[in-house]
Every structure is written in C-alpha cells, then in structure tokens.
Amino acid sequence: MLIAAIGAAAGAAGLAAWAVRGKSSQLLAPAVWRGPRDAAGFALTFDDGPSESTPRLLNILARHNARATFFVCGANVRRLPSVAREIVAAGHEIACHGDVHPYYHFRGAAFLRRDIGGGMDAIQTATGITPRWFRPPYGIRWFGMRPVLRELHLELAMWTVIGRDWKLPASEIAAAIRPELRPGAIVCLHDGRILTANPNIDNTLDATRQILEVAPPAFTLSRLFVSPWE
Questions:
Q1: 51: burial class by Cβ within 10 Å (0-12, 13-18, 19+)?
Q2: Are 120 and 131 in contact (CB under 8 A)?
Q3: Is 191 a catalytic residue?
Q4: Candidates 1.10.3210.10, 3.30.70.1110, 3.20.20.370, 2.40.70.10; correct CATH number of 2-223?
Q5: pLDDT at residue 8, as a whole number
Q6: DSSP 179
Q7: Among residues 47, 115, 165, 191, which one is catalytic?
Q8: Is 153 a catalytic residue?
C-alpha cells in the first residue's frame, strides 16, 4: 500500500506540474500552443519587451517582410511607451505579458487580476489598443487564471518551440528552432530580459536573422487563430 500511495502521489504531482507548465495543458485555462497545420506560415512571438533594442528587431523584421506578436510587460511599456507605439506602427501585434513579470504559482486570483490588468492598462494607455492575447510570465499558469482571462477577454497563448535566447548563443537558438518551423508553429523568443533596462539581446537579433533567412512566412498570432473561447 505504501508503494501504491507513493506512486499515486508522484502521479498527482506530475499532473499538477503539467497543468501549470505543460505547453499543451488546458486544465487551468484554454490555451493555444500551435496553429492549424495547413496554415500558410508560422507565428513569431517575442516576450519581455519592449526594450531599447526592440527598434533594431523591428528593422530586421521589416527587411524580411515578417510580422510578429509582441508580449510586452506593463512596466517596460511605462518605461518605453514610444517603443510600444513603434511596434504597433510597424504593423505588428501587441499582446500582454503581465505587468512586472512575477511568478504566478501559489498566487491567488486577485494577484493574477492585478498583474494582468496592470499590463493591460499600460498597453491601452500607451497605444490605445486592447490586446487579444496573453502569455503568462515563465509560462506558468495557476488556479484562478481562467476566470481572470474571461473577465479581461484575453486568450492564452503558449508556444510550439521556445528559443531559450536568454542564455544560448544565436547559432544554438536558430538550430533549435529551425526544425520546428512547420506551418502553424508558434515560436517564442524575447526582445527583453524581464524588466532589465537596456538589455543585451544581440543573440536574439542574430538568431532572428538566421531564422527568417530560411523560414516560411512569419505571421502574428491573430493571423492563425480563431478564439478558443468560442
């Protein structure tokens, strides 16, 4: 019985971990992690911005006629509102990554509402846009997220492949992503480093160049998806 109990506990812990961090998990809120396999291209997304280097990224995207979805942090938008407006003016989609990039696990619904709502408010104040999409910091979902997202009319987006560009060199980032560049894939990179001012994202910029040189068309998320709430 002890072995059975230990096995059951381990199974429950594994399920809980998958619910919180699994990219395809739907247990805590409906989420998309890839688009239709017959899509004309893939979705390119960037988290943690805007940063002082985001305009350099916008130039790279423009040279490759690529569009992307930027999951921005409210605190960074308040610091760099003009860069947030540049994202929108360049034809890209702006989305919510919360306000101050906290961990959401072991937090209540009221905390989630404050952080997600704070990010939404910053985006709306700077750009006049109400985002459609939300991606949780660190990819962590928690109990209470479903009603908060419903209240704020947000759809949750995870990813098919993440570049780990906060720690890897450009060549390794590109090598990890290229095999996943199938129609409907969602690629996650970062144009900021959480709330760091003036972060060095040269590896992300170089990897983005390498990816777009061989990639199918890069779209925003809203080019690929209908609402998972419908």
A1: buried
A2: yes
A3: no
A4: 3.20.20.370
A5: 42
A6: G
A7: 47
A8: no
Q: Vertex 150, ends 94 and 49: CA angle to 5°?
A: 25
Q: What is d(CA 26, CA 12) in angstroms, rounded to the nearest whole number?
A: 16
Left, alpha or beta for 153 (phi > 0: left; psi -120 to 50: alpha)? left
Residue 12 in contact with residue 200, Cβ under 8 Å? no
Task: For the chain, list the strands marked E by DSSP.
Answer: 31-32, 42-49, 69-72, 93-96, 133-134, 155-157, 161-162, 186-190, 218-219
Q: How far apart are CA 148 and CA 110, in angstroms?
A: 9
pLDDT band at 226 (very low <50, low <70, confident <90, very high): low
Query: What's the first-to-final CA gap in the chain, in angstroms?
Result: 45
pLDDT one-digit tens code per residue, 89-127:
999 999 999 999 999 999 999 999 999 999 999 999 999
52: tokens are 């002082």
Q: 11-21: per-residue pLDDT in tens? A: 545 657 888 98
> Looking at per-residue confidence, does 17 or 226 come out higher?
17
Beta strands in 42-154 (DSSP E): 42-49, 69-72, 93-96, 133-134
3-state DSSP percent of the chain in helix, strand and coil, to 5 = 45, 15, 40
Contacts of 96 (CB under 8 A, 6+ apart): 71, 72, 74, 116, 119, 120, 123, 131, 133, 134, 135, 154
Phi first, then psi, for residue 20 (nearest 5°) are -80, -40
Which residue out of 64, 190, 202, 206 is catalytically annotated?
Answer: 190
Q: In 3-state terms, what secondary structure has residue 82?
A: helix
